[in-house]
Amino acid sequence: MTAIGIHDLELASTHHVLDLGVLAEHTGVDPAKYRLGLGQDEFSVPAPDEDIVTMGASAALALLERTGTRGVRTLLFATESGIDHSKAAGVFVHQLLGLPPQVRVAEIKQACYGATAAIQAAVGIVQRHPDERVLVIASDVARYALDSPGEPTQGAGAAAILVSADPALVEIEAASGLFSENVDDFWRPNDSSTAIVDGKLSISAYLDAMTGAWDDLVAHGGPDIGAIDRLVYHQPYTKMAKKAQARLAEHTGAELGEAGLAEGAVYNRRIGNAYTASLYAGVASVLDHEPGLVGKRLGLFSYGSGSVSEFLTGVVRPGAAGRDDRFTAALDARVPLDVAAYRELHAQQLPSAVDVETPRVTEAPFRFAGIRGASRRYERR
Ligand code: HMG
Questions:
Q1: What InterPro entries does the record point to (predicted)?
Q2: Burial of 28 (0-12, 13-18, 19+ CB in 10 A)
Q3: pTM of this prediction?
């Protein structure tokens, strides 16, 4: 059977960044709580002319410049910070990228799990039409209320993932483990731009879902824990991956230690939570920072509050050998904010019923130009 999986993977983030040391000074919290307790150094903050569309389009543009658009007939946009209740954010991306009309576009939502659902749908499409490739975009802005425990775990970022037959980076294996349960750990009502979260419950729900999904993976013919070389987890903050690996070791009896955690956290420590994109930022981080993974098996744990989760596995392909630390320079180029400027940006919410032009700030390829006649306008810079 033909291998299907991730052919290419690219990340994008925002114009601004907030250093958690700067936030700690403002909140009076020991900075070690953020850096060690949560495992986070910074978080990305969008400029007024950036959003999930501009980040997603920027990531996809860089990817498609390498791969071309041949065979792309589906664009799936996974997000939980949607910009419209009806229209898929991917429709704007389709236009910005100049894709032909013969492309189906849809948005997929289930908290941070959405991108994995999109990838599994993409694998199904490619299985049926091996000459087609599916562009999956995961893009999110993670926002919690100011001065709440969630505040230091905010962030923003996008991953563009091209799913194809005979993939260059990671073959996704057929067996996967699932675990879904209706739980009120984290959600965002339609009229709120910030999430409601029960932090402690969210951590235990995540860990219970992980062992549940693991057991289902084993029950469905997945590999033994000893046959998995690296584990990558959804990282709302990178300490969560440590907790997950410790729980999985306890659950399976394997000696996992902290292997691979630092390599899989390089980008996430600096982006913050990018919801749907977080697991795939972790995958990029591991591929870019751990040489010698070709031929090795990755275990990927995807969790979306609410909750739906999936444990899947993939085998690293030779194309990954050429990867290096490609995203740090983009993270270094972000413009630091002070707390006052960050809080002002956090408070900004554009009412959708007015005509408004956004200031020109971003230096990314695409910008959100504003709202005219209640509809959003985007442009290439
Ligand atoms: P908190 O109230 O800051 O927690 O909330 P804490 O006081 O327990 O401290 C956190 C850690 O820092 C603890 O370590 C402390 O010991 C340590 P742990 O017990 O966890 O190992 N600490 C220190 N370490 C070193 N030096 C110090 C120090 N002081 C304390 N001086 C919480 C933390 C994560 C709950 C909060 O930030 C939050 O609510 N975040 C948002 C929710 C979240 O991220 N949940 C994660 C699981 S759910 C998920 O992943 C889904 C999600 O991505 C959404 C989606 O699916 O759409 C969120």
A1: HMG_CoA_synt_C_dom (IPR013746), HMG_CoA_synth_N (IPR013528), HMG_CoA_synthase_prok (IPR011554), Thiolase-like (IPR016039)
A2: exposed
A3: 0.98
